[in-house]
Amino acid sequence: MEDSSSTATNVARAILAVLDYSSTSETRKSAVQFLESIKSGDVRVLANTSFVLVKKEWSSEIRLHAFKMLQHLVRLRWDELSPTECKDLVNVSIELMSEVANACENWPLKSQSAALVAEIVRRQGPNHWQEIFTTLASLSANGPLQAELVLMMLRWLPEDITLHNEDLEGDRRRLLLRGLTQSLPEILPLLYNLLERHFGAAMSEAGTQHVDLAKQHADAVIACLNAIIAYAEWAPVPDLARYGILSGCSFLLSSPDFRLHACEIFKIVCSRKRPSDGSTAEFDSAISNMFQILTNVSREFLFRSSSSSSAIDENDYDFAECMCESMASLGSTNLQCISSDNGVMAVYLQQMLGFFQHFKLGLHFEALLFWLSLMRDLLPKPKAAAYPSGEGSSAGSVDSSGQVDSEKKKTLSLINDDISSALLDVSFQRMLKKEKVPPGIALSLQPLELWSDEFEGKGDFGPYRSKLLELIKLTASHKPLISSTKISERVITLIKNLLASPAPLQDLAVMDSQQLALDCIVATIFDGSNEFAGGSSEVHYALRRIFEGLLHQLLSLKWNEPELIKVHVHYLDAMGPFLKYFPDLVGSFINKLFELLTSLPHVVKDPATSKSRATRLQICTSFIRIAKAAGKSVVPHMKGIADTMGYLAKEGTLFRGEHNILGEAFLVMASSAGAQQQQEVLSWLLEPLSQQWIQAEWQNDYLSDPMGLVRLCSNTPFMWSIFHTVTFFEKALKRSGYRKSKLGTTSVTTPASHPMAHHLSWMLPPLLKLFRVLHSFWSPSVCQTLPPELRAAMTMTDVERYSLLGEANPKLSKGTSIYADGSFDGSKEGQVEDIRNWLKGIRESGYNVLGLSTTIGETFFKILDANYVAMALMENLQSMEFRHIRLFIHTCIVYIVKTCPMDMWESWLGVVLHPLFIHCQEALSSSWLGLLQEGRAKVPDLFGVESGSDMKLEVMEEKLLRDLTREIVMLFSTMASPGLNTGVPILEHSGHVGRVDMSTLTDLHAFKSNSMVGFLLNDKRVALPALQICLEVFSWTDGEATTKVCCFCGVVVLLAILTNNVELRGFVSKDLFSAVIHGLGMESNAINSPDLVNLCREIFIYLSDRDPAPRQVLLSLPCLTPNDLHAFEEAAAKTPSLKEQKQLMRSLLLLGAGNNLRALAAKKNQ
């Protein structure tokens, strides 16, 4: 006994040392080691010591830790005790729980005492539960404090069912679930009796002013409700009803103190899925009863709230929100329980509409989720609209294809015109954010609680507005005429209010907020996939009349301020799909756009016109939108648009940037007119550009050497002229045949059919010259000779810096880059910013031009010399910044790799990839070494920030390093894609797992022409730096990069298995195998651990009999013995299962590394 007391004293000291902040690290470490030795030492010493320390004479901190030690014993060392010792531990633990059941004990000790008994009950198993439950039921009858402890234990008991416990195996979890289910006839009546008893006692004691006793009984009620919540998630709903749990909770819905907990139980049960066994009828009955209860309570709340909002406090609203969630859960999961009764359904929908209309945002939001879920379920899936034959079920608004069953049709018919109108009215009104409401309008909206940045718990405004728009779209699909009428009336009203407003700019926010709603409704009704033309003529006529009237209002507006015109143009944009079906209105629409364009000033030197410039660009962009939306309806007006463009250009009132956007719109229009007209439009647009672009004079003056480009940067008009030429090349390539397939691979048309093919020969050579001299700016020998303002312009833009830091740019993020075309204010800072924007823009658009040019067949590869391209683009690669290399790879190199014809791999890929891989390997290796060893990445990028921002610099440097790392391995992943490796067979086809027949091995050269990875491995100059990058990626702390490199390494391993190349096999068996295992030691690779384990499995299973290295690598692990490896090989040989082999390899690696492979350990704990 003396030894036990001494040990307890030592343990207590160790606990206090661990908790004491003033303890040294060595003291704390020694204390932790001592405590761990007690937990892992003699189990009886652990038990006796813990029971000593839970006594009242010790401090709360020590007692709490002692309870946790006992829980550890029960959870992990229970089997070491004899049956008698187990029984004694049960009795002592229940006695402890009884002892802490007094008003003086704090809640954590009570909770841990209950958790200990719950842990014991789980370990004892169902066969011993009856005796324990009898004891606990008897204890709960002793008073409210004892009942509270028993109820807390019952709450903890099913925790391993509702919460995942890594220590609990699947069989034990199933056993626990089965045992608890069998025990529900004892548990649920006990819960009901305790709930009824202590609720009544709490009310009685409160009535006699016995506050302390009333609180004890109330605490027992709360504990009981918390316990019921733990069972409501999984216990059969009919059982919850049968034993009075649901009726007891329904009674508490009228109690202000307990209604929130009771409603939480209702919410959980309402979301339970309907069973498929014989208890369906009982389940439906229980849900129907709950619905009636919730309906009565919500009716009373909505009535009180509508008659006097001041009578409702925040507690009422919290309860109402939970009640609304319960009703929404019922409708989303178990609507079939009430949908058969139209009267009941009508009441339900009206109440959910009441919540949706409620001025409180929280209630409205929960109802919004319900209406979205309901409408998604009721409306046909393939088509968003089910008109245009009419409104409502009687008019056949639901698609007649039979996709919606009769039950859903019946429910959908209940969502009548009035409900649809109300849904739209509320949605329109709530499209406005509180922060944007002008003061005058804010008063008129009271007490409506609009979305605010201060509102917590519901996400951001953007996703919320998207939900409103989706509901508007679904409603427009169901009731097109109602939706059209409502939005038209609202927009016309807003226009009239704005025209009458003394300060229209202040009131513009409301008008601006409704544009997306109009856009959504018009797009839904007149979307081509909805077969609008197939509807009835009456509906067509009604819709035309509505939108024609609205369009007339929009066309008649005469606003002059840029802000008003910008919103005006947004509304015109929204009408585009309508014009597709009514082409006779297109002419007046286009005339209006030109009228708006010419009404705005075009002076470039006046800073006050910046808003006008932005609006002019917005108007020009509208031509693209109308060309897309209206399709062929715009084609007859192309000549008129061209004539107007020519006139404005001749008058000097159309900027090059605006001309480019209108030209892009022309390309979109031409794509609807056919290939011949598209070719003619391209020639018309590109011929004036080519006349300047191909001239030798400007190329000799500006592109022959770096100083020439310096002169170009001082010739601002010509500099921006070149920029606009390059950006139009980019637009022409994007709009003239370039596209992506669903698989993400580039779809390439033949040179003869692609309208841009014969233009590449004159477009690309000057561009390559431009890039050669542009890249030279960053070489040290050239950079030091540049003027100061140009060196300053080579630094990052503010937008780039804020992006790297993940911060919002406080400045106008697009303003300078979009409008900068020589219109700076004349200051030196303005000139630097102008050149900086030009350098950034010409690089981005130029790289895009090169990348897009590769996607139109073989033209790019045939008209250009690979060596010249490599020299022009790679000559100064060593001086390029990481951000530029990343962009270069992403927009140019990836496309060259993806689209290069197989018969031209030899002449192109080696030349282009060799210098890139060499430099990236050296640069990334050096930068990662700095980051991992010194805490700071070494990158060459010019940030252009003042000193004193070291922390931000470090963040930006690391982001640049990770971005480039991920981009280069993404290139590797692209090279390893199946489409570029068609000659590599699938190794384990149809589940076959085993060693490869040696007689089938081929030379690596056989894969040179049908596998890009095979081609790469045949060229050592290119392969060595690429493979070195792959090896190092596994040691860099970037899980995303590891994911991509695994794809490439998988093909490398496959080729090592399928070929007889000794050098490749040696690399994979030793270097790659070691690197992958090292990668498993990085916690950042936890998400990729299955892929890494599979690489290890493939290397060992398929190569260990052909090379000694795999065994040597595994035996070099610190904890792996030859016997362990032999046992693994025997087990792996016996199973043909891929899954089992992976599991065996995973276990072997964990064993061999002594559980130090953090990627596997982290994955296990996730």
UniProtKB/TrEMBL annotation:
Residues 314-1163 form the Exportin-5 C-terminal domain. It holds the Pfam family Exportin-5. SUPFAM superfamilies: ARM repeat. Residues 107-265 form the Exportin-1/Importin-beta-like domain. InterPro entries: ARM-like, ARM-type_fold, Exportin-1/Importin-b-like, Exportin-5_C, XPO1/5. This is Protein HASTY 1. It comes from Cardamine amara subsp. amara.
